[in-house]
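Changelog-adjacent note: as of this version, every example in the card shows the full chain rather than a window. The one below runs 302 residues end to end.
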Amino acid sequence: MEFDDDATIGGGNLSDVRGGGGGFPGGGLIAGGGGVVGLIGIVIALLLGGNPLGGGGTGFGVSDSGFGAAAPPVSSDLVGQSCKAGRGPQGRVDVFATCAFEDVQETWTNIFAAAGQRYQPTTLVLYSGQTQTGCGVGSSAAGPFYCPADQRVYLDLTFFDELRADIGAPGDFAQAYVVAHEVAHHVQKVLGTNDQVAAAVQKKPSRENELSVRTELQADCYAGVWANTAKRAGTIKLAPDDPEEAIRAAGQIGDDRLQKSAGRKVNPESFTHGTADQRVRWLRQGLEDGAPSACDTFKGDI
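Full-length structure tokens:
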């Protein structure tokens, strides 16, 4: 995967707080079940009206319900970097992730504009270990996540090592898929999908897991829409095997596959993200169709 030759990091929607401190006394700790198991779980709890920081908890090993403001943007040597520096195995992973994020944002801005709507950008927060967020203290154990409370995407870059070594999904386009998936949750918030899902769950709580899955699959499809649109616009260049990197990643983090790899019995009623086949199917849908309208996972079978 390559970016447009003139692409550079602007920094307007970047907060680089790596090395800027860890947890906060008294704050709730966002802690997933390890890596991808927590990739979107916290987000879903928030989207569906739950509070993963509350005393009752949602199975994510959290404590108090302290909320705090996210760290403001700070100066970074990333600003002004050419996206060329993030190319290839010897490139800077922070440059690559940030350039991918900026391309995803630019693409969605253009998609919204073409539909006569205004996209409200999110911010990428790069952190190490733990960081304060609008949803409490975020931990790298949760994997990348989007916090609806402060409308920011949080990423500890060590996750990409896990994606390659532990999950079995190497490749820069697999990394870009992760970034695009998180931004897709912000797109859902801007479009009002979050509120609609929360209202549906409040009306019928038994649908919570089903709607969680549908929300996640739509984010996968939106990630594919970004790649299709950006490729056609010429802001990214994909090698022939790049799409398969993302498809492999999507398949590796299906609920059924994660449960099997953890030595557990596959339990469809506990799914929150979708099966491997479902995640691959909807990512392909976005990659091949390229239109957000093709990503209506809330109608019919999935």
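Structural remarks: Residues 131 and 197 are 28 Å apart (CA to CA).
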